[in-house]
Amino acid sequence: MAPHCTATPTTGEAASAAQHNGHLLHRSLANPPHMVESASGCTLHLSNGRAVVDACGGAAVAIIGHGSQEVQNALAKQAQKVGYVHTQSYSTPVAEELADLILDGTPYGLEKALFLGSGSEAVEAAMKLARQYHFERNDTDRMHFVSRRQSYHGNTMASMSVSSNLARKVPYKGFEYPHVSHVTPPYAYRYKTDGETDGQFTDRLLRELEDEFLRVGPGKVIAFIAEPIIGATAGCIVPPAGYLAGVRKVCDKYGILLILDEVMCGTGRTGTFFAFEQEHVVPDIVTAAKGLGGGYAAIAGLYVHGRVVDALRQGSQALNHGHTYQAHPVSCAAALAVQKILRRDGLVNRCREMGGVLEKLLRSELAECKSVGDVRGRGLFWAVEFVKDGATKECFDPSIGFGAKVTQASFERGVAVYPGAGTVDGVKGDHVLLAPPYTVTEEELATICRTLKESVLSQEAQYL
């Protein structure tokens, strides 16, 4: 769903890879990826003999680290029982157990879970379910979605339509779902005006959202979709206090559903199982993915509030949506094993505690780096935004690719971080993102932050 967290291969590596070019279509035809022979804990072992600390968890995915024998055993055991059934007619105990584990006690009114193959699929399903909710209630004029600029919700056509990752949309202009509009993100470092308090900034954003509902026609809006903490596109943007709770009130005023996309920031990543828990808000639909299976299988989740389920119960009594591989038993077995480990080992609390360690290390190590404009995040989900001028917040020229160069320099020093470009408006701005496994040690965090500092300083020497 996003660029590789590892850096572009050097010329020599690319030439070597090209000599062994096979039939697998990689993300880049010009720069083949690094070959990973094995992985364990927070470490990737490359085919050239190098070891790299995975400081971004792949893409905020590997929440329990790599190479868990316990998860591998669960995968094998399920494959020996039943590898696949079609959910039109069948279910499996492992899929039922996974749903019951995650939604035990119907947390925050979330009553039902749907398991799919990717975050993009989950967002597509959320959009369709939100539309069906209104359809079941004979509120059929609702066709419109409102999202936020500098957001990311997936790579399929509808999920990309509500996203605002401009670079990914360039070849597909005209293909997108047309009934979408975007409002200002809660990105205080860039969008809060001089002299404006956090409260005033929040009030302005909420007025803008309500004005957009009124412009479109509140009876035409299906849902507002947002990441509780904006992920890779803008780099771990934490909203000001009260923002999401205020969004909920505006949505309720006009009968508009609230979809919270926790594909990247959820499943414990920010220090609570659901990222929205810390925002004092209850959504109608939640999407999840990356941390659900921890990278051991392709799986995503859709968690649905009881009031949405009730609309289906009182109407057609069916979800008008499905995929061949939904609730895939082997994928569910992997996710179930990961989620049991998460709970048994107290890893969500550990994520929160280690997040405090990471924040302190980042702020202390990067204090002397002139290009560091902002350090932000929550739990083990942190980003560093780079600027050419700290006082004016001027960005580096996009042609430099400052964030990508920091990523490359870090990789060469043995630490993989996640690069970001177009941070500010889709064109300008650079950042890197850190999202290590919840099992990361203090020693590994110290290595990550020290290496990042060295990498940033190496690029500042060239571009400042």
TrEMBL record:
Region span, Disordered: 1-20
Keywords of this entry: Pyridoxal phosphate
PROSITE patterns associated with the record: AA_TRANSFER_CLASS_3
GO cellular component, one term: cytosol
SUPFAM superfamilies given in the database record: PLP-dependent transferases
GO molecular function: pyridoxal phosphate binding; transaminase activity
Cofactor requirement: pyridoxal 5'-phosphate
Superkingdom in the source lineage: Eukaryota
Record-linked InterPro entries: Aminotrans_3 (IPR005814), Aminotrans_3_PPA_site (IPR049704), PyrdxlP-dep_Trfase (IPR015424), PyrdxlP-dep_Trfase_major (IPR015421), PyrdxlP-dep_Trfase_small (IPR015422)
Entry keyword Repeat: no
PANTHER family in the cross-refs: AMINOTRANSFERASE (PTHR43094), AMINOTRANSFERASE CLASS-III (PTHR43094:SF1)
Family per similarity comment: Belongs to the class-III pyridoxal-phosphate-dependent aminotransferase family.
Protein name in the entry: Aminotransferase class-III
Lineage: Eukaryota, Fungi, Dikarya, Ascomycota, Pezizomycotina
